[in-house]
Amino acid sequence: MVRKYISVYSSEGKGLLMANENLGKAKTVKNDEFYTLYEYIQKEMNAYLEYNPDVFRDKTVLCPCDDPEWSNFTRFFAQNFEMLGIKKLISTSYALEAKKNKYEKYHQITLFELNSSQYDEEKAERKGKIFTLSRHTKKKINYDDLEWDYLEGDGDFRSEEVKKLRDEADIIITNPPFSLFREFISWIYEANKKCIIVGNQNNVTYPDVFSFIMSNKLWIGATCNSEDMVFMVPEGAVVSPKDKEKAEKMGYKGNYTRMGNICWYTNIEHGRRHQLLSLMTMDDNVKYSKHKVIKENGYLNYNNYDAIDIPFVDAIPSDYDGKMGVPVTFLDKYCPEQFEIIGISNLKEIPLEGVKPVGEKWVSEYRKSGGTGHISPNMHCLIGYNKSNTPVSYYRRIIIRRKQSENNINN
Questions:
Q1: N or C: where does the chain have the smaller number of CB atoms within 10 Å of the terminal CB?
Q2: Which residues, 6 or more positions from 281, have their beta carbon under 8 angstroms from its beta carbon?
Q3: Would residue 236 count as lying in a domain?
């Protein structure tokens, strides 16, 4: 079977079609709009195509919270509409009025409107837009065939209007507002849809998100994990000078920012999800580990839970069959054939069964050793002692266990 890889990259600059010069200056505010670069989208989608060349064939793709004038999701799927075999592409964008709580009200005439007799100044302020691309008699369909109109409402993904579009779609692909990620993922699963979306790695600690991950209904995407990602931001958005400088060093100068701890979330299969994590024995890890804490302390048991602590993903041993607490970053290496996810610590909405209260004795010793933070005797966070018998409070851990069927592979 021939594998299809997309290498189209025709957006200006570093992957975004710039709006026209009439874009007004925006008020300096905290930003919740980060526009994903074309190359990141291309790289991630290629991973699904490598695993299944027909993953998008005959599917209706919805890109909500989007606008092809700014965002590259619509551009990517419109440009590759024929090659991917997409049945229909739908994108929706917010009305200008919907953003006024975050940005100074400005008039942004998009190129789509500028070149169309449909343009209506009043509607442009109050109504979102819908962009569609579908199969018709024309032999070759591309970005130039996008049709657009105004929505009845402001384009909020929670509106009944956009919900109907969600229900029509097979796959939802976008970069939702980070502040609404939890609500957005629930919105997707409410309709039992496939998805590929951008989010923060720390979102896995949301109870509903982690429940989906633990039950293998959601997992981390194929690319950009544990790496910095660059995003374009609106004019006037707050950008840390350090992040702006890092973006420039990565080749993006202007209204760009760099963000860490960003990843893709999906429920569509890709090859990386089934790659076994290469492991060493406990003895070899202690002997050869690059981490000082492993060399000095070896593997420590929790004081109030029957498991060992693994502070680094590359220190997971190949010869331990019990429960292990690993960092949240483990999830981008998680292979469901190799490991079972048992639970997560320090998440009161999903209590980890078997964790005992830390107790007054440990808290007293912890304070005497200089330990800080809000910890009380009745809390159920993971605790222990290092080799020097100093009390240790562990950050949130995902509890895993190697699957017995996998033991023969590594031993």
A1: N
A2: 317, 318, 319
A3: yes
Residue 26 belongs to some domain of the structure: no
pLDDT in tens, 53-72: 999 999 999 999 767 667 79
Q: Are residues 222 and 325 in the same domain?
A: no
Contact, 286 vs 294, CB < 8 A? yes
Which strands form 147-150's sheet, in the order they lie side by side? 147-150, 129-134, 88-93, 60-63, 171-174, 194-200, 262-266, 219-220
Domain count, the chain: 2
Residues 61 and 195 in one domain: yes
Domain boundary, last residue among 272, 306, 325: 272
Cα distance between residue 319 and residue 6, in whole Å: 41
What is the full DSSP assignment across 25-67? PPP-B-----EEPHHHHHHHHHHHHHH-TTTTTT-EEEE-S--
Distance CA 155, CA 95 (A): 6
Q: Which of 244, 272, 300 is the last residue of a domain?
A: 272
Residues 253, 390: one domain? no
Q: How many CB atoms lie within 10 A of CB 43?
A: 16
- Looking at the fold, whether 207 and 119 belong to one and the same domain comes out as yes
Q: How far is CA 185 from CA 158, 204, 220, 281, 385, in A?
A: 12, 11, 13, 38, 38
Q: What is the pLDDT of residue 411?
A: 44
Quick: pLDDT tens for 322-336: 999 999 999 999 999
Q: What is the pLDDT of residue 112?
A: 60
Are 331 and 219 contacting, i.e. CB atoms less than 8 angstroms apart? yes
**Contact at 8 Å (CB) between 302 and 394?**
yes
In contact, 77 and 105? CB cutoff 8 Å: no
Per-residue pLDDT of 148-203, as tens digits, reads 899 999 999 999 999 999 999 999 999 998 889 999 999 999 999 999 999 999 99
- 267 with 306, same domain: the answer is no
Q: Is residue 310 domain-shared with residue 259, that is, in the same domain?
A: no
Which structural domain range is residue 349 located in? 282-410
How far is residue 183's CA from residue 201's CA, in Å, rounded to a whole number? 16
Q: What whole-number distance in Å separates Cα of residue 114 and Cα of residue 101?
A: 25
